[in-house]
Amino acid sequence: MEQPIVTTNPEVASALRRGQAVVALESTIITHGMPYPENAETALSVERVVRDGGAVPATIAVLDGAPTVGLSEGEIDRLGQAGPAAIKISSRDLPFVVAEAHTGGTTVAATASLAASAGIRVFATGGIGGVHRDAATTFDVSADLQEIARTDVAVVCSGVKSILDIGATLEVLETLGVPVLGYGVDRMPAFYCRESRYLVGARVDSPAQVAAILEARSRIGQTGGVVVANPVPAEDALEPSTVDGAITVALAECEAAGVTGKAITPFLLARVAEITGKESLAANISLILHNARLATEIARLLGAPVGDAPVP
Length: 312
Ligand code: PSU
Ligand code: MN
Hints:
Layout: E1 7-8, H1 10-17, E2 22-25, H2 28-31, H3 38-52, E3 56-63, E4 66-69, H4 73-82, E5 87-89, H5 94-99, E6 104-106, H6 108-118, E7 122-124, H7 135-138, H8 143-150, E8 154-157, H9 166-175, E9 180-183, E10 202-204, H10 207-220, E11 226-229, H11 240-257, H12 264-276, H13 278-301
């Protein structure tokens, strides 16, 4: 067999060998999720939060054709500067960008699959992709859902943005057998807002509960991922009416501009962010940091003997 082509940076590789906690981080949020320099600054702050919590961060992307697990600060800045000029890489794009030596940010789908192949079990992000509101006619369902279903990784996120159909996204996750755990909430978070009207599969209130559910899942013999839905901190949450108004405008503009395919999600997210202004960027940054903190706590508990607190 050929050697795997995934490059794992030495710090991440050594942490994994020694059984230390590692948290994977996506990079489409850097290239397509925020403007420069906030994108690179946020990615570096997220890494600091993971380190401060006692785990090793592994931001994942494809650099000149090399799927890379654990970017350097310089590499994060390079992706940030490239922004949407870099490729948005979902699972199906990996063979193309590797063969043609391209650079880009990996979506939740591609990041989860690269993380799992490196042996990382916990992944933090802002929001996952899902079922688009017009999916009944367009069939637009993010590959994130299927990839989470087949990859052994816990994805800590603040739900799906309300540009999507949250109820339909939860139905697909149920069909795919993905546990959806509301962290401290009974209802699915809606990214900028703490709650939608849809119930999660189960509510959890501690990282230890999440770790126990992950362990139980593998003891049962099930494979595949888990979604941990962690709401945006209350002080940074937006008013649902503000967000709804922006979404209505963004959806109409997307349709009028004839945007299709993988460009749809970045277009809608960017327009909602522009219309809602600085407040939504602040909420976005706050929830990502919050998710990274929780992911770090979960990662530190995995593999630790039951009842044993991780060494600080
Ligand atoms: N949701 C966000 N911000 C993002 C994304 C989703 O709040 O940046 C990105 C993630 O990388 C996600 C991707 O994996 O969009 C989903 O794109 P698509 O719908 O084309 O699968
Ligand atoms: Mn799509």
